[in-house]
From TrEMBL:
Protein name per UniProt: Uncharacterized protein
UniProt GO BP: conjugation with cellular fusion
Gene Ontology CC: mating projection tip; membrane
Biological source species: Saccharomycopsis crataegensis
The UniProt record lists the keyword rRNA-binding: no
TM annotation in the entry: 21-43, 128-147, 159-177, 209-229
Superkingdom of origin: Eukaryota
Keywords assigned: Membrane, Transmembrane, Transmembrane helix
InterPro entries membership: Dni1/Fig1
Length: 255
């Protein structure tokens, strides 16, 4: 009997909306990590686009340069050394002892990799769509976690609207990132074939994380729609019983 009472208490404590809260928490963590790519050397393995420049001339002081791009910063590795991350990739390259501004190959390296990559990040990639989606998801999480439908029977209707907007922004951010980075990959591949030895690579983590987040947003939107429909049906059912003066309406709990 004691176990049954515990099960009943647990069922009353855990509601379907709490599943949405967990999914929202996972989505916020995933997309926050995508936005934080290349901000510090600790997360240098998480990037949007990686460019590797290989110098074929023997007199060049830099034989290999690896540049990894994130939404807000970049990470640079010279000649297989450790990554240094920051907002300005050129300053990080100047800080390297191997970089010689008077060397023609170093100047070409800057013009090809650093300037082109920074231009791509600033003009083609935008983090703000994804950032707004994360902020709206945090708002949804707060609404679902702290607003009880027992006191606000129509609380799920505005939640579903915000979920729909957040899902739309997440899809736009995913398609934007996928199309722009794939285009950059093809352009740098053309450069590799015709001019320099440059290799481009799309970050596997960011691609998987942003599309996984979009899938989670779809589940959250469908769940919030079901909760809104169930809440509406419950509200009509309670009003019908109240109309016939039965006490059943006061016994209905939150869904």
């Amino acid at each position: 009997m004691f176990i049954n009472r515990q099960n009943i208490s647990l069922q009353r404590l855990v509601r379907p909306r709490h599943i949405c809260v967990v999914l929202l928490f996972i989505y916020i963590i995933l997309e926050a990590l995508v936005l934080a790519t290349c901000t510090t050397p600790a997360v240098s393995n998480y990037y949007l686009l990686s460019l590797t420049y290989l110098e074929t001339q023997e007199n060049s002081p830099i034989s290999e340069l690896r540049l990894r791009l994130g939404y807000f910063s970049s990470c640079v590795s010279v000649n297989g050394g450790s990554y240094s991350c920051g907002v300005n990739a050129y300053d990080m390259l100047l800080a390297s002892s191997e970089f010689d501004s008077s060397n023609a190959s170093c100047v070409d390296l800057y013009n090809l990799v650093i300037e082109t990559a920074d231009m791509f990040r600033s003009r083609c990639m935008t983090p703000y769509i994804l950032l707004i989606s994360v902020i709206m998801s945090f708002l949804i999480l707060t609404m679902m976690a702290f607003i009880s439908p027992r006191n606000y029977r129509n609380a799920y209707k505005p939640v579903f609207f915000v979920c729909y907007v957040s899902l739309s922004l997440s899809v736009i951010a995913s398609v934007w990132q996928e199309s722009n980075i794939n285009t950059a990959n093809m352009l740098f591949q053309q450069v590799l074939d015709n001019y320099y030895t440059v290799q481009a690579h799309y970050g596997d983590y960011t691609r998987g994380a942003i599309w996984a987040g979009t899938g989670i947003q779809i589940l959250i939107s469908l769940s919030s729609l079901m909760l809104a429909i169930m809440s509406s049906w419950t509200d009509r059912f309670v009003n019908a019983w109240d109309y016939y003066n039965t006490p059943m309406g006061s016994q209905m709990g939150p869904i």
